[in-house]
Structures are given as C-alpha cells and as structure tokens.
Design brief:
By secondary structure, the protein is of the alpha+beta class. Strands 5-4-6-3-12-11-13 form a seven-stranded antiparallel β-sheet. A six-stranded antiparallel β-sheet has the order 7-8-9-10-14-15. A hairpin with a 4-residue loop joins strand 9 and strand 10. Helix 4 packs across helix 5, helix 9 packs across helix 10 and helix 9 crosses helix 16. The longest helix has 15 residues. It starts with 5 loop residues before the first strand and ends with a helix.
Amino acid sequence: MKQLTSISYSDDDHFHDECGVFGIYGHPDAAAHTALGLHALQHRGQESAGIVAYDGGQFYSHRALGLVGDNFNSSAVMERLAGNVSIGHVRYSTSGDTVLRNVQPLFGDFKFGGLAVAHNGNLTNAYEVRKSLVDRGCLFQSTSDTETIIHLIARSAYGRVVDRLTDALGQIEGAYSLVAITQKKLIGARDPYGVRPLILGKLAGSYVLSSETCAFDIIGADFIRDVEPGEILVIDEKGLRSIKPFVERSSRFCIFEYIYFARPDSLVEGRNVYDARKNIGAELARESHVDADIVVPVPDSGVPSALGYAGEAGIPFELGIIRNHYVGRTFIEPSDHIRHLGVRLKHNANVGRLKGKRVVLVDDSIVRGTTSMKIVEMVRSAGAKEVHMRISSPPTTDPCFYGIDTPKKEELLAGRFNVENMAKHIKVDSLAFISLDGLYRAVGLNKRENKAPQFCDACFTGDYPISLSDKQKFTSPTLFTLLDEEA
C-alpha cells in the first residue's frame, strides 16, 4: 500500500460557524479594542472582517475580505476608525456570497441618523420578508439576511431607534445575536430562544458585548453575564438598560458550541467549554470503551475530548497526528496529482507513535465522512494495528438552519447510513458516537427531556425549535441561493 501521510486543507469536512460579533461603548480606543476582540473570535469566521466606529460626529467603517490580522494591522487603518463606540464582525458566509458588499457591519443612514448592525446567526424567514420589502420598493445592496433587519428598522412607524429595532425583530424568525450602534447607543440583542451566544462584560467604565468571553480576556475586560434569550441591552451615557419585549421561550442554546464552535478557553452559558469537552470525552469512554494502546485526537478540535477519553479509559494519550497550523483558506489549491501524492498540507501522521498500536481516534463530528476516511487511511498507512474511531457528538443526521454551514441532509453521512455502515464506509475497526443523553450528562444535565429539550440539538434529532418558513426556498440549508440569483 502506498503510504498516505497528509490531508489537503481543501478536504476540510467540519461544520463552520457563521460569525462572531463584538461591541464596546465608552472607550477612547474603541476600534482598537474591537480589532483585538475580533482577533480572539477569528475561529468563528475567517472569510471577512469589519469594524464601524463613531466619534460623536461621524461614522467610520473599514470592511475587507480575509482575516482580522491582515486587514486591521496598520496605524493608518486604525487611526481612521476614531471614536469611543465601535462594533465589529468576523464572518463565515452562510447567507449571501463572499463578496465585499456582504461584509458586516452593515450601515444605513436613517431619518433618525446613522445605524450599523452586525449579526450572528441565520434568519429563517428572511427570503419571505425580503420579497415583501422588495415588492414595497426597498432596494437591497447585499444578499445577506442581515440587511432585512436594516430595512425593517427603516420602515418602522415607531420613533425611537430601540422601538424601531424591537419592531423589526418582532417580524423576523430564526437565530440571532446582534450588536448595533447609533450616534448615542450601543445595542445588543438575542433571539427569544437564545440559540446563538452573546456575552456582556465591562472594561473599567466601558461596557463590552461579545460572542464569547475569550474576546474579553484579550482586552482585560471582566465577564458580567450572558445576555438572556429575548433580551435587548441598551448602553448609552446613562448606563445599561435591559428590555425584554418578547414572549418568553424555553432556552434552546446551540449545543454544538460546546462540541466544536466555541473556543476552549471561553465561558458560555455558565459552562467552561474546555471542561465540557473533557467531560464529553469521559462520557464517551464510559459508553463505548474499547481495548487499545493509545488515544489520539484529530487536532485541534478533538484534543480536549481525547484527553477526557484517555483519562477515563486509563489509556495513554498521544499526539499521533500533527497539524500544520500555517495552512489557511487562501493556500494555493494543489492539482489532483499533487494531492494524491500526499503533500503534507494540514495533517501528518506521527509514525513513531502509531506504528504497531491499537489506536482510538477521537474527533468532534463526522459530516460527509471525507476527512474521516483520509485520516483513517493515513493512520493505517503509518502502521497502526487497529483503528477505532470515537466521536464526541451524536450522529449528525440533519442540517442546521440557524447559522451553521452544513450540507444538505442527503450529503450527511449519518443521514444516509447507520453506524455500522458508516464504520465500513470510513474503514475503521469500530465506530461509536456519544449518545444524546450522554452529551446532556456531559454538560451537566441528567438527560434530554423529549418534551422540553434544554438545547437546540436539531442537527442530531431533526427537532427544530424555530419555524423554518424559508426552508422550501433553500437549495442548500443556509445559503440564500435564490437571493443571489435575483441580485
């Protein structure tokens, strides 16, 4: 057998989160702190980044395709973003093309003045709302679902900007955490089900909003609390005000934040993400132990769960796969010939740790199965005697419509095969996923209550908590293909 020792970045087969948001009010270096916060949130979106700031007389904006560090790395850029209030956004597109006009924050001039909005999530009735707005004469500049919020604010009959925003949010469905700024305010809002995260903090006398607490750590801000589901926070010179205008719902926070999306050093919904992932690995070991010589994570997302698995199973943890961290989305695509030769682009087998061993591979999920197949082949080619795969999420059987970039159901491996046939497909000696109840136990709950699940786990169950009004209009779950065609 020809030895295969690497996997191309283009074969990446994980889910991708859609974006991260950050906002700060009352700090003289607001934009600089926003850039640092976005740098900490870079894992939530690598396609584009943007910042809008306000200095008391004018709004300033810089938006660009690419990474935060590539676009906010010069004094010339940062000096133009003057002001003591600022919001920012990092994006992985789930709604609209990857083009500059879709890069957030989006800005509009209204009767009441300027307003910029940055949104994390996905609206499930945006096509329907957008079509209605276009029929009434609205002109859209992007294909992002976020722009529907801008137009709804503009057309609202209410006077105050907070009332206009509340009116607009009352007309949309889906998952959203958003930040916005006007001439006088920083506003944060979260959908009534709390699907996407939003955190409140404080830096000296300045309030800060972020998708995750890791962004607070980089600027030295203190964590205060999670923004509650359905809550709107208004921050201005008078301080902080909380509004809860919507019908209260049971929280359905995205459980995949604990499995993969959030950074391990973040605290979300009162839980440390790293601890949650180690607990998931330990639960996985209790549910599906197998005799083996070493436990090997698929880096980097599989590392905490693999540590938990190894500790619970009493099997040595080894870095049997080494990741090249210097491969990104803009890396030149190799030809098929070069790819098949096994150029070491993203992952490389640590032969000295794998040869002759019975290996437990721990990864966070299996999506299409393409990466899993190549990982297994690579480990076997390095001389592993047995390869057992353990997955720290239940089988992913259904797509996400709430802001996670996932394939259609028929493209998901678990949507087509049972676990036994999945194991045969990726060519492992055994395959096991954590159970849904086990996942709930790992994050501190006894089990999933079927009548009132405490998380959004629709990608494992098909139980969608929020109406999917636009579902029949999607050709893929989270891309507004129809809107792009119309544009």
